Amino acid sequence: MKLLVSDFDGTLYQNHMIDQDTLLQIKHWQNAGNYFIIATGRDFPSLVEKIKHYQISPDFIIGNNGATINQIALTKINQAMYRLLVDRIVSNEEIFQEIKISHLSKNKIYSKRSTFTELKLKGLQNFFLEEKVIQLSVKAYSVKKASQFIEAHASDFPEVSFLGNIETIDIVGSSVNKLFTIQQLIKQLEISEKNVFTIGDGLNDWQMVNRYQSASFPWVDSLLIKAVDHQVHNVGEFIKQISYDK
User: Fold this and answer.
1) What is the pLDDT of residue 230?
2) Which residue range(s) make up the domain with 146?
3) Helix (H) and strand (E) counts for the chain?
4) pLDDT tens-digit profile of 117-127?
5) Which of 124, 145, 173 delimits the end of a domain?
């Protein structure tokens, strides 16, 4: 039995779609008794909404960069830290377009997206103090501005991780990453590490593709290229390769 973990945006979901051959290969993969898992920076509800138009049923969804599995939150941001983070983000509003807050309420994961005008009017610094905040995602006006914010402010908040994802910064607990959650899952499923395969296109995928047999694409960051075993053009192509591995 094998287990394949795929990033979503830019990896499984390319050019605003999942191609038909990849969908077919995923179906063959699962029908052969293997696990197919999506690991994404998105939260569970937004991922489910995105894939509902496709005939695809991942066995598990690792969301929020590893902070959640399906509707289960593995960690949260400390409430006091959350308020400090939002205050810092608001004080740099010229850098950002909007903020999205993923949180747990009554054992379900929800998300709320707000512009910075709404943030000020509704006082979201206080709104979620009674909730379990899982992840903050802030969208900057440019990749450069996002990188500059991380460089300038990340060291002030060692309790969380700032994960750059193009022009978006995902902020999660410092112990959170996709690799850690994959390791917990394969232990639970009793899957040997030699039978774990990963594929991704972003630097937040580096840990998981560096640890296991993996693939990425010719156009990704050189750090990722050096970490992977295969270069492919889509997830379906990678499935074809590993399906014949013995």
Assistant:
1) 94
2) 79-173
3) 10, 13
4) 776 655 555 55
5) 173
